[in-house]
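--- STAGE predict ---
source: upstream dedup step, 1 unique chain passed
mode: sequence only
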Amino acid sequence: MILAADEASLYLQVTLMRVWSVVGQTPVIPCDPGRSLTHFYGALNLTSGQETVMRTQVMNSAVSALFLQKLLAAYPTQPILLLWDRAKWHQGPAVNELLAAHSRLEIFCLRVPFGRASPDLNPQEHVWKATREAVSHNHGHAKLETLAIQFENHLTNTIFPSSLLDQHGYHLLCAMFN
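--- STAGE serialize ---
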């Protein structure tokens, strides 16, 4: 199983996006003046397009280890190659202990092409973008919990195709060995 993972923060504060409206009727989007937020860990299955997601209030090594456990539970028998960046919360004792205990999970930390200078190359970034466009841009939610539930539901109920493996000949290589 090859997964691409990343994290995103969701704010109650509205992010604006262009919309259609009747000429002369400017759309009004209510905005929350605060900075309420929650975080999501997400991993995109690069062959099926399915998303594994976990919501959290903090991002640290212990929470990263919990997310890795969730991935192991989601794919209980398959070896997992996880493409992940080098965020500081992806390292530490909790993550190291989990990796030592589960040899079928291998993390491939990429500086390039998933580095800070080119996040658009990470397929998980495209998932975040599509979900923000569908759910959190121009939203009218008064409560973060309501917005977060809708965000998470979109992630888990949508298939997000990725061409990353095809671009690098993965499916052709697999066909040669089958």
